[in-house]
Design brief:
The complex is a heterodimer of chains A (251) and B (237). With 251 residues, chain A is an all-alpha fold. In chain A, 75% of the residues lie in helices and 0% in strands. Chain A has 9 helices and no strands. Chain B has 237 residues and is mainly alpha-helical. Chain B has helices at 2-11, 15-32, 34-54, 59-82, 84-92, 94-100, 105-119, 121-134, 141-167, 174-201, 206-236. Chain B starts with a helix and ends with a helix. Classes of the chains: A mainly alpha (251), B mainly alpha (237). Chain A binds chain B through residues 88, 136, 140, 143-144, 146-147, 150-151, 154-155, 157, 160, 163-164, 167-168, 170-172, 174-175, 178, and chain B through 159, 162, 166-167, 169-170, 172, 176, 179-180, 182-184, 186-187, 218, 226, 229-230, 233-234, 236-237. Chain A: It is a multi-pass membrane protein.
């Protein structure tokens, strides 16, 4: 009986570091171009052409940086946890490397979200920081990233380090729904989510369309930096194999 | 082969027996090293002493601070005691024997954590009214403090054991374990100290206790799985 191909071939080929290196090499320029176009176009659109808010004036424009960074910080954590689960269950080396590469990017996105939030909070709420549910849970997310990174660098054996950080990432996953729903469960200063899958955003189209462009641009940027980190990691871990030596000799 | 597995299954102790045996072993070991038992309690007392000296000895101010201070001190004391949970077993090799044994690791780990909680968390809970008095916590707050600690400290022990299991093979586990575990402690701290605050102001505290209980139920069901996985990873290197 012929085996059913329920998963495309390229997907399980990604499990091989060499294939993954070549595959991401092909994807990288496309994502880089998309990220550059979307981020530059989105920034110009957001800063120069989108209408100003009737209450907050121009200060609201930081939303175009704040919301994508916050979304990315959570998505990167999800990706990290899923990669960790894949690495734990199927012992895939590439998944371990994805986990290790995603952590610093996610941490910097969390910092960016917290920093832009603080800058935005000063004119609108009158203070840089409030101990509000969403801000606190975002801070916890940042700490979780730091924990994963610290654990990863403390253990010398690479596969043990990856598995241990995968367990930690999965345990920390409890925090993601708390962040997501904190603005709905608790009555807080922070406004509810801008985008929802089920309903139309509360802002006018001219305002949320550039935001959507920025979010997609951030995702592309995330993909680019993740792939670059992943490729470095692959080269480093496979440095003793034949194909890496050949590759390096060619350059 | 079949005979062999059957006979082994028949001779293996039941789950309750295994649980009790592990608990008994933990108790025996700790009572032979009494300093490990007392140290977290002394630390708990000392941290609470620092606040009147460092912030202000004024009773009204301290009473406001008390729920949070007692909770933070209990949290740090639990955290400090976590590091020794698996370390001596790891060093003398009995942890490997536990992992190799055919008995379910879930039960062994759960028994170890619960025994550990009885000697730290429960002791901290019993000692908490003393700290409450030292910090001028109103008498109405005492039941809330005890109840919230009683429900919260087992969660702290269970979550802390995950960190302990992840760092057991490392030489310098001490700082790392707090880095890993503290972010996960924050929800327990929030609900725990809110419960005490509610009790002080006379508001109903059932909701907070229910949330603490829910966290405990979640940790009881899932943490032993994570601890076992983490132990297997730490031992394999």
């Amino acid at each position: 009986m012929a085996e059913k191909k329920w998963m495309p071939r390229w997907f399980y080929q990604l499990a091989s570091p060499r294939w993954c290196y070549q595959f991401t090499g092909k994807l990288l320029p496309w994502f880089a171009v998309a990220a550059a176009v979307l981020l530059i176009g989105g920034t110009v659109w957001a800063l120069a052409f989108a209408p100003a808010d009737y209450q907050q004036g121009n200060s609201f424009r930081i939303i175009y940086l704040h919301v994508p960074a916050a979304i990315l910080a959570q998505s990167a954590y999800m990706l990290m946890a899923v990669a960790g689960a894949i690495g734990l269950i199927w012992k895939m080396k590439v998944a371990d490397m994805v986990l290790k590469s995603a952590a610093p990017i996610g941490a910097s996105m969390a910092v960016l979200a917290l920093a832009t939030g603080a800058i935005w909070g000063k004119p609108t709420w009158g203070s840089w920081w409030v101990w509000d549910a969403r801000l606190t849970s975002m801070l916890i997310l940042f700490f979780l990233y730091l924990g994963v990174m610290a654990l990863n660098s403390a253990i010398e054996n690479e596969s043990t380090a990856a598995q241990a950080s995968a367990v930690l990432a999965l345990v920390g996953l409890v925090n993601i729904p708390i962040i997501k729903y904190s603005v709905e469960w608790w009555n807080t200063l922070h406004q509810p989510a801008t985008f929802k899958l089920t309903e139309k955003p509360a802002m006018p189209v001219e305002m949320w369309l550039p935001l959507l462009v920025m979010v997609i641009g951030f995702y592309c940027f995330f993909a680019v930096s993740l792939m670059q980190r992943l490729r470095n990691e692959i080269i480093w871990r496979e440095r003793r194999t034949g194909w890496v030596r050949e590759l390096l000799n060619k350059q | 082969m079949k005979m062999y597995t059957n006979s082994r299954q028949n001779s293996s102790p039941g789950v309750t027996k295994l649980f009790m045996a592990t608990c008994r072993r933990e108790f025996l070991l700790s009572f032979r090293r009494k300093s490990d038992l007392v140290n977290p309690l002394i630390f708990f007392l000392m941290v609470a002493t620092l606040f009147p000296l460092g912030v202000s000895p004024e009773p009204g101010f301290l009473a406001q601070l008390a729920p949070g201070v007692v909770w933070v001190a209990a949290l740090l004391a639990t955290l400090l005691s976590m590091d020794v949970l698996f370390r001596s077993d790891y060093e003398d090799g009995s942890l490997e024997q536990l992992l190799l044994s055919p008995q379910p690791l879930f039960i062994v780990v759960l028994a170890k954590v619960i025994a550990h909680w009885m000697m730290t968390g429960l002791a901290l809970t019993l000692m908490a009214p003393l700290l409450g008095v030292m910090l001028f916590l109103p008498a109405e707050g005492m039941p809330g403090l005890m109840l919230s600690l009683l429900l919260g400290t087992p969660t702290l022990s269970l979550v802390g054991a995950i960190g302990a299991a992840l760092t057991v093979g490392l030489k310098k586990g001490g700082v790392l374990i707090s880095l890993l575990v503290l972010p996960l402690y924050i929800p327990v701290l929030i609900f725990g100290s809110s419960a005490v605050q509610a009790a002080v102001t006379g508001l109903p505290l059932g909701g907070y206790l229910a949330l603490l209980g829910a966290l405990l139920a979640l940790a009881l069901a899932l943490a032993p799985l994570a601890i076992s996985a983490a132990l297997r990873i730490s031992i394999s290197s």
